[in-house]
Structure formats: C-alpha cells, structure tokens
Design goal:
Length: 248
C-alpha cells in the first residue's frame, strides 16, 4: 500500500482519479534483536490525497491536468520480524496503496530486547512496493462503468533516531525520502486510450513517542510531508497518527 511507509492509492470515481501517499510512518529505530521476534499493528494515519480531474480529456490523449491536494486519514496495517541482532524485515500496507516490503538496519545502540533507560539508537530503512492492476467495473479501486490498466511503484528510505526516556518509553524522530510513480491507460468508453504518467518526490519529517510493555505498544506520531506531483504545485501538510500493536 492494492502497496506502504505510501504508499499510493488509486481510485476512479466519475471523472476523478485519487492518489494517496501515507505520511505517518510508525517505524522506531530499535530492531527486535532476536530471530523471529516480531510485532503486528493497526494504525490510523495521515495521508496526502491528490485528486486528478479528467474533465476535458479526450480519447487517446495524454492526461496532464494538475492534481488537487488535500490531507486525509485512514487505517493501515504494519508488521516487522527480527532477522539478525541489528536487522529487521517489515511490511507496511497503507490504505489503497502498494504494499511496501523493507529492511531496517540499526547502526547505533541496543536493540529492543536489551534497551534500557538512556539508550540512544539510530537506524536506516529502505523499502519498495509495486502494484499492477487491470481493473473492470467490479474493482474496489475503479468505480462502476470505468476500467483501466495501471502500474504503480514506490521507493522509500529513511533515517531514524531514538532515545529511551524510560525502560518502557521511547521518543523518536526521523527524516524520509520517497519516490512514487504511476502510469496507465483508461479503457472506459468515455476516455478510451487516454493515458497518464505522474510521479512525485516526497520529503518527510516525523516525531513520535512510543509506550510499551512486554506484549503491547502504542505510538503517537506527528509528521510533515511535502509532495511535488508532476504538473502540480508543491504542497506540504502536517499529519497526525495513532498506532496500537502487539509483539512477541
């Protein structure tokens, strides 16, 4: 997110294509520290939603209308699994967006299973997601009477720093870079063979606090996200999110 961190949602309703990029990330800098230790979580996170109005587009033409941006919020699922002492694998499934699979490498501090009050941690992440859809009128992505062939991709990287305020509390912050692109051909009779190609470089910053015990955790996070979609003026939004999870 169907992709992830982002991430991309595509819907077609009447004459509008809507694309979502997730802003809140909910990735802490501490790895699990043990093979197959892991967690799963559900979050209510902020997104940038970009709407493409296809009014005035003729059959066979290239769509290059500007996107209209707005902030929105929706659910997402996320999980991670320990692989090495300082390396986790993770999956992020944002709302109507390509599912992202990624790696988190901790380069400073103790991992989660050893961290105590006063621990400083630093990690880098990298993830990728891809989605190819050939949709008909029954799809949950494209609305009734419309069909399209679409490819969407996301590439994401981040640096995250954290500090243990207590044995069971962590504050973290980070910066991120993502690249989203999507292209496709609309095959609905009204826009037959109209095609589109859009991409954006997304810059993000976030800060969050995490409370935990041996079996559960909660995260609250604030984020800033800047997008620069093709043919569209840059936009920046402040986003808030909440995550609840369990771990083993």
């Amino acid at each position: 997110m169907r992709l992830s961190y982002l991430l991309l949602a595509l819907t077609l309703s009447s004459c509008t294509i809507a694309i979502k990029t997730p802003g809140n990330r909910f990735i802490s800098p501490e790895t699990k520290g043990k093979l197959f230790d892991g967690d799963v979580a559900i979050s209510y996170r902020g997104y940038t939603r970009s709407n493409l109005d296809t009014s005035g587009v003729s059959a066979g033409s290239k769509i290059n209308n500007a996107l209209k941006n707005e902030s929105s919020q929706a659910l997402a699922a996320q999980g991670s699994l320990g692989f090495l002492d300082n390396l986790d694998i993770y999956i992020v499934a944002p709302d109507r967006s390509p599912i992202q699979a990624g790696l988190k490498f901790q380069i400073l501090g103790e991992p989660e299973n050893k961290a105590k009050k006063g621990n400083h941690s630093l990690a880098v992440t990298m993830s990728y997601g891809r989605q190819t859809d050939s949709n008909d009128s029954d799809s949950d992505i494209f609305d009734v009477g419309v069909s399209a062939d679409v490819k969407s991709r996301v590439r994401d990287a981040s640096v995250i720093y954290g500090y243990r305020m207590g044995d069971w509390s962590l504050v973290y912050s980070g910066i991120s870079y993502s690249n989203y692109d999507f292209d496709g051909v609309i095959t609905s009779s009204n826009y037959l063979n109209a095609h589109f190609e859009y991409d954006t470089n997304v810059l993000g910053a976030h800060v969050g606090v995490m409370g935990m015990n041996e079996r559960a955790f909660v995260k609250i996070e604030a984020a800033l996200q800047k997008t620069d979609w093709t043919h569209t003026q840059d936009n920046t939004y402040g986003l808030m999110g909440l995550q609840l999870g369990t771990k083993w």
